[in-house]
Structures are given as structure tokens and as C-alpha cells.
Amino acid sequence: MKNLLLVDDEMIFLKSLAEGLRMVNKDYNIMLAKNGEHAIRVLKSVRVDLLLTDLKMPVMDGFDLLLEIFKNYPYLPVIVTSSFSNDDVIKKINSMGFFHFIEKPFEFDDLADKISLLLPGRAKSPNSLADALNNSESRVQAI
After folding, report:
1. Which DSSP helix (H) or strand (E) runs through 33?
2. What is the DSSP letter of 140?
3. At what angle do helices 36-45 and 62-72 cross, to 10 degrees?
4. Fewest CB atoms less than 10 Å from the CB: which of 35, 75, 94, 125?
5. What is the mean pLDDT of residues 35-40?
């Protein structure tokens, strides 16, 4: 079982993303955090195999979370997402050295592929969300 921590202040987006990832790979244990402060509490209590975070959030934003991860969890694979990206944001993320960036809106299959590649032990997953939906007996409800 791989523990994924998804961090974003948009809970509808997080829940939808979590449902899609569970359909792609049943070995994903998905945990949700609404901001960086909440994510730090989760990181202190549970082993996390991969973190996906937004940058723009209340309480503790994604940049402060990335600094905390850099100091205390340097080997944790991290994917950064944001719809507020520009060259300065991307340079700042790259200067931190070890993060992957995907601009919102993104293609779900691109994110699922990146997660699969970054996870330790690379848990096998179907080729796409479409494959997972075709092979799944469960139904997804629109939110």
C-alpha cells in the first residue's frame, strides 16, 4: 500500500482527484490535507510515499510547506500543482531542487503517470483512467 498525501484548499477538487487515483490503483491509500499546516501534522503521524501540493492556500501555503519538506523530508517525492504559475514561480520551485511541477488544469492521466513513476517501488497501475473505469465495477458520481 502506497500512502499519497494530497494538499489543496479546494476540497471538491481533492475528493475528485482522490477518487480518480483510487480507481487507477487500488493500492493507493489517499490522505487529504486542506493546507500546509494540516499536511505537516499528517507527515508527522504517518509514513507518506508521495506528496502532491498546491501552492496557493491559506494558513500555510505551498512554498512554506516545500521548505518544511526540504528540511525534514528531503527524500519525499513531491509534485507541485498550481494554476498561478509563471516563470518566477517555476524558477523558485526549481531552485528548491527536487520538486516536479504540473500546471493546473492538467490531464489526469499525465498526473497518474507521473505519480506512478515517482513512487518508490513503482506500484503497477492501469495505463489510464479510462482503462481503470472500463475495468472497474464501481461508478463515479459527479460532484
Report:
1. strand 28-33
2. P
3. 30
4. 75
5. 95
